[in-house]
Amino acid sequence: MNASSAVLADYTARLEALALELGMDFYPVNFDLVPDNFMVEIAVYGLPVRMQHWSFGVRYIHQLVRQHMGHSKIFEVMFPGDPCHAFMLEQNSLAENTLVTAHVLGHADFAKNNQLFARFMAMAGSHILEQSAARAHRLQRALEAHGQARVEAVLDAALALETHIDINQPLHRPRYPEFVAPRARPAVSHFHDRFARLPGEHVEPASNDAPQRAPLPPQPESDLLWFIAQYAPDMDDWERDIFLAVREEAYYFHPIHACQIMNEGWASYWHARLLREATFLPHDLYVSAIKSHSDVVRPFASGQQLALSLNPYHLGFSLWEHIIDKHGLERARQICREEDDFGFVRNYLDQELADQLDLFVYEARQDGDTKIASRDIHQIREAILAPKFNYGAPCIAAGQVGADGALALHHDYLRDGRGLDLPQAEKVMDYVGRVWRRPVTLHTVDFRGIVRVLPARKL
Question: Which intervals hold domain SpoVR protein-like N-terminal (predicted)?
């Protein structure tokens, strides 16, 4: 351990003690310093060890390009759990990693106390790194047994559908009942019973004891990863295992997606407060750390420019400060426990704060011009939340499996409020067709609202 690492370890222990004094309640955190290339791999794969797939390589190249252009710097990657795992850059300055340490403690506090995190962690487990490594090991065995082409075809389909889960269903759920439950015979009144006993009036009830097979699915099923894993007619067990593994990781990541604004804002509020009250930090380090804080929580645009994209750190930090100023820290803690980003933004982003942050809804016209479309608070809230709806995926459900095994998928475009990107949808349909191995169709509309039926092409 070099001198800088030893100083950081000391600051970490003292920041943890200060956090407890201030009433924070967090999972223990394992901190690791890692080189830049490893940090990029963690960021693009989503986990330090994960199932290998070509799409992660594409993301890796994209991230490198962004970094070289100065558009993206990864300070840390943190994985909620018990314990949490945080990875920090070796190349960060001591001030930056001190800031990151305080920020991570805020994340650990949020993960332990937020009900959505608690619910999904109870289902998906609290040791994501070890679980992910075990899944990667099973995939490696599948690669050795079945070859890269077959395994990659299954992963193509599973990862294309990774956000198509039903968050209202448990992770571990049983298959549908195979047969329709028999109808209970209606109760016979005393009068009808006496009438039936009269000579010549008794009639034997029609026998209908043969069980009736239930339709598949019994109702539209939006958990496509689960449905395909359970009911694809010709899938092998190892292929079903891959689908269920991707689904399990999607359950782990859902609270991170659904609470991003809250979570990043909460962590930013606490890192600012911890640094402010950490009297043991040297003055020059504190100034450098606070400068990094200002860079993190500001809008993407600077000066008098308008930002057309939303910085969740900036919005979340501003919202928590607004709530604490108006309602106090205990009320903020209650909100932290009970809400996700939908309730957080809809209930606590008011017109006063929206005006203060200069938030607006904009539209890009066909001639290339961009103009402000609205500053109405309701439209601002829904524009912020639109990318989060349904885990960011279009509302598509398995509607019917025919006698020949043909699968019909239906896009609920009225609920979505938009059509699909048809070239992308066609590609996903091809992936699904490879694993379903029977005819597959998707009923949807294009961007003009014209009804389209997309078949999975045979490859």
Answer: 7-385
Nearest to 90 by CA among 1, 208, 192: 1
Are the beta carbons of 225 and 166 closer than 8 angstroms?
no
Give the integer Cα–Cα distance in Å for 146 and 211: 40
pLDDT tens string 208-237: 567 888 999 999 999 999 999 999 999 999
Residues 6 or more apart whose CB falls under 8 angstroms from that of 341 comprise: 258, 259, 260, 261, 262, 385, 388
With a CB cutoff of 8 Å and minimum separation 6, the contacts of 63 are 40, 43, 44, 72, 74
Chain Cα centroid distance, residue 337: 18
The C-alpha angle with vertex 155 and arms to 125 and 123, in degrees rounded to 5, equals 15
Which residue did the predictor score with more confidence, 75 or 97? Answer: 97
Alpha-carbon distance 452 to 411, whole Å?
A: 10
DSSP 95-112: HHHHHHHHHHHHHHHHHH
The single-letter DSSP state of residue 53 is -
The rounded distance, in Å, linking the Cα atoms of 29 and 85 is: 6
pTM, 2 dp: 0.88
Tokens 């475009």 found at: 413
> Terminus-to-terminus CA distance in the chain, angstroms?
55
Dihedral of the CA atoms 58, 71, 252, 162 (nearest 10)?
A: -40
Question: 223 Cβ partners below 8 Å, 6+ apart?
Answer: 164, 165, 166, 169, 247
The residue count of the chain comes to: 459
φ/ψ of residue 33, rounded to 5: -90, 125
Instruction: Output phi, psi for 370, to 5 deg.
Output: -120, 135
Cα–Cα dist 97/113, whole Å = 24
How many degrees, rounded to 5, is the angle at CA 74 between CA 72 and CA 77? Answer: 145
Domain boundaries, the chain: 128-171+215-256+394-455, 301-393
Tell how strand 370-374 and strand 407-411 pair up: unpaired
**403 C-beta neighbours (distance < 10 Å), count:** 5
- Quick check: 310 pLDDT over 90? no
Rounded distance between C-alpha atoms, residue 334 and residue 266, angstroms: 13
Q: How far apart are CA 381 and CA 388, in angstroms?
A: 12
Do residues 42 and 59 touch, judged by C-beta distance below 8 A?
no
pLDDT bin (cut points 50, 70, 90) of residue 434 is: very high
Q: What is the pLDDT of residues 283-309, one digit of tens each?
A: 999 999 999 888 888 765 444 455 557
